[in-house]
Write a structure and sequence with these properties.
The structure is a single chain. The protein has 245 residues and is an alpha/beta fold. It has a single domain, classed as Rossmann fold (3-Layer(aba) Sandwich). Strands 2-3-1-4-5 form a 5-stranded parallel beta sheet, with helices on both faces.
């Protein structure tokens, strides 16, 4: 019997984990939810250091030196570049390990709903390069590595992109109170908006079957909303109907 890999994509706080677990429950276990295995990133404070470094650089980029020490500017920039590449490298390697586990599940005939796929790394890395958190040299290195290691890796049968308004994302970040994300919810912070600008072009050019869910219009936390998502899944990949019967 065929197994299916459904990847849930979307910006930070779009509801990926919530939908992943909801699909497992609704399928009665025919789909298992697979959440990111990156506990050590938070355990060692990588995310907090990354957000702090890039936000500090963003605040300086548009301001004049006005006689201030240029060395301080360069120090802040180098800190952003260090954590920009460090966080992306860490996530990429972690998701690569996850892909090995996913491959075994799929080979055993188990369908999987995955909270964020490795393919989304391309969005975050491009954003970091666009805003000078990753140097051009490191960005080219990343692209070469991605192309090399992703050959013959399992591909998603469907990517569900959860599209969300930035203000809604910031409200959810405040609501879930994760300390490392607090910087992102501030009114002047444009990190989420920058990512949102990249997501729609990426999903439409990703080369995989995709389904776009407007999370402001469809609340999949409700039974009715979840059924709308499931109907979209079945229409996109007809063979998945048996998972929800």
């Amino acid at each position: 019997m065929d197994s299916f890999l459904i990847s849930i994509a979307g910006n930070i706080a779009a509801g990926k984990s919530t939908l992943t677990k909801a699909l497992e429950k609704r399928s009665g276990g025919k789909i298992v939810s697979f959440l990111e295995q990156v506990d050590y990133v938070k355990k060692h404070g990588y995310l907090e250091k990354y957000y702090k470094a890039v936000s500090a650089y963003d605040r300086l980029k548009g301001s004049k030196l006005d006689g201030k020490d240029p060395g301080q500017f360069l120090k802040v920039k180098e800190e952003a570049e260090y954590w920009g590449y460090k966080i992306q490298e860490t996530y990429f390697l972690s998701r690569l390990l996850d892909l090995g586990v996913l491959n075994e599940l799929l080979r055993d005939g188990q369908s999987v709903a995955q909270d964020r796929s490795i393919y989304e790394d391309q969005i975050f890395t491009k954003n970091s390069n666009n805003y000078e958190y990753i140097t051009d040299e490191d960005y080219r290195k990343y692209l070469d590595l991605f192309k090399l290691v992703m050959t013959n890796k399992p591909k998603p049968d469907l990517i569900i992109y959860l599209e969300s308004d930035v203000e809604a994302l910031k409200a959810r970040i405040v609501g879930r109170s994760r300390g490392e994300e607090s910087e992102l919810a501030s009114a002047e912070n444009s990190y989420l908006s920058n990512l949102n600008d990249l997501y729609r072009p990426w999903i439409m050019k990703c080369g995989h079957p995709y389904l776009i869910i407007d999370t402001d219009a469809i609340d999949f936390r409700t039974g009715e909303g979840l059924e709308q998502v499931i109907e979209g899944i079945i229409q996109s990949v007809p063979g998945t109907r048996r998972l929800f019967e």
